[in-house]
Every structure is written in C-alpha cells, then in structure tokens.
Amino acid sequence: MAIDIDTIEAAAYEIMSRAAIDIPEDYKDGISKMGRTEQGKLACFVLHTMMDNWDAASKDRRPMCADTGVPRYYVKVGNDAAVQTGFVGVERALRSATARATHDVPLRPNRVHPLWRNEYNNNVGINAPEIEWSFEPDVDWIDITTVHKGGLFGTDYRMLFPGDGLDGIKRFVLDGLIAFGKRGLACQPAIVGIGVGGSKDTCMQLGKQAACLRVVGDRNPDPRIAELEMEIKQMGNSIGMGAMGFVGSSMVVDCHIEVGFTHTGGMPVSMHTFCLSSRRATARIHADGRIEYRGDPQWFTPYMRRETVEWPTETTVTI
Questions:
Q1: 0.90 exceeded by the pTM?
Q2: Which of 5, 70, 105, 309 would you label with 19, given CA atoms 20 to 30 Å apart?
Q3: Is 151 within 8 Å of 70 (Cβ atoms)?
Q4: How many domains does the chain have?
Q5: Is the domain of 190 the same as that of 252?
Q6: How far is Cα 236 from Cα 250, in angstroms, rounded to an integer?
Q7: Is residue 27 in some structural domain?
Q8: Mind listing the pLDDT tens digit for each residue in 154-198?
Q9: 318 or 253, higher pLDDT
Q10: Are residues 157 and 192 in the same domain?
Q11: Do 172 and 252 reside in the same domain of the chain?
C-alpha cells in the first residue's frame, strides 16, 4: 500500500510545530536533574527560568525560543515502504511543510542566500532545508524527524592522528567547550555530539546526528564508547562553567559519540552542541496512513551501525 503524499506533508507540518514549541521529555528531565544539583546561583537561575519558559511556550503554543534555528529533516525509509508520488514527491512535501510552518507557527525565516542575502521568507532555498536519508530493512513505514538547530556556532572539527588516541579526543572536546563557554558560542547545558572517523564530511554528519538524534541517557552499544561518553560528560561539567557560561557545573547535559571506519593514517573528530533549545520531533507514517508522534528519533538502529557486508537475515550469515 502506497503512503499518501498528503499524509507525509501533514506529518512534516505537525512535527515542525512540535519541535519549535515542545521540548522533548528526555531533555526536560535532564535539565530538571541539573537544576537540583547546580550550585552556581546564576546558572541555577538560568536553568529554572528556561524550564518556566518551556512550560509557558507549551501552554501558549508559541515557539520557546525567538531564534527557531534552521529546520532540517532526517528521513528513515523502510525497505518495503512505497509513497504515492515517489520520493521526489517526499522532498517537495517536506519543503512545502517547512514553508507553511514558517508562516503559521511561526518560525523565524533564518535562511538567506550566502552571497546575495536574498530570501523567500519561508526557510526554503538552495539546499534548504537539508534532508538526510537512511534506510531500514523489513519494515514498510517511513520515519520523518525534524531538527531545529542553530546554524552558526557550537561546532568544531579537528584532524587528529591515531597516536593522539582517546586523550587527544578529550583534549579537543574540552578545548572546544571552554572556548564556547568563554565566547558565548553555545547555549549550555548542551547535548554534545562527537563524530569520530569516517571522511571529513561523514565525521561532521556523525557528530551532528549524535547531538540531535539521540536522547538524553542513551548510551552507545559499544561499552568502551559508552564509558568515554560518560567520562567526557563528567569532564565537561567539571571545568567550572554552568548554564549559559555562568559559573557552575551544568555545561553538558549528555555526551553522545558515533564512529565510522576511517583512513588508517588519521582520526578526524568533530564536536557539535545541541543547545538549551533542543528541538526535535519525529513522526512515523505507516503504510495504512496511521501517524505516530514521538520525541525519540530512534535514528541509530543496529542496521545503521552495522559492520557487515550483508545485513543478517534468515538466509544470510554475518561476516
């Protein structure tokens, strides 16, 4: 059964609104816990004020931050899914939903041409909004996630060498967090996403996905990476900076790390901060037209992290 394209656009429009207005429960819970342990007076004040702001935004159905970031989409397509007008139609539906939501929610029209600075007042333009695709075997649904992430600061990249090891990664992240806090380049507490490996562009993608598409409290299935995530989180909260750079211990609400096989001679690393306005929402559109909404994108499935040539099924063997 082919999914109706109007259903796709309706779901995309709805999650645009939800992402702008309603903070996901996992992030709210993480900030609430930080608010109970933060000793810095100004940092504690910021945390509680933000939680009050989130409640007011949800009650009034207005965006919780004046800067609604740059909307983007992550689409996970079931291998058995079909769409009424094909996937070119999906892209058109997502662009249309973005334009309508920009006007209706409203979202701030942040997108402009990088050289001529012209814009269409709808967050749509050349290569905007970004749409990233992934696939999932043996299902017939489509997941659409929107993320409204700030598009200016809070990101860094460095090409390390294998000899730099884990200490080099930690030093790079701490250098970045301190610089961001001192210069006001990120809105803490942030979910810190770290990409390690891959090519340069893949490294950047993995870091952003790690920040934006995993929930607070989620750990990488590799126990050694999970241990590194917790260590970096603890280190980030021990540098003396709290919410919005004030003195305190609430710099990192969580740390997520994703990896990709890379060139033998290097170790690219990227860092991304998903700020105090952690805006994401997901819709699953089933083949029968049902739509389910949630806050957890469930992007990094075992299939996404596979190391095999062939994905194991009843008739294939892991290699």
A1: yes
A2: 5
A3: yes
A4: 2
A5: yes
A6: 8
A7: no
A8: 899 999 999 999 999 999 999 999 999 888 888 889 999 999 999
A9: 253
A10: yes
A11: yes
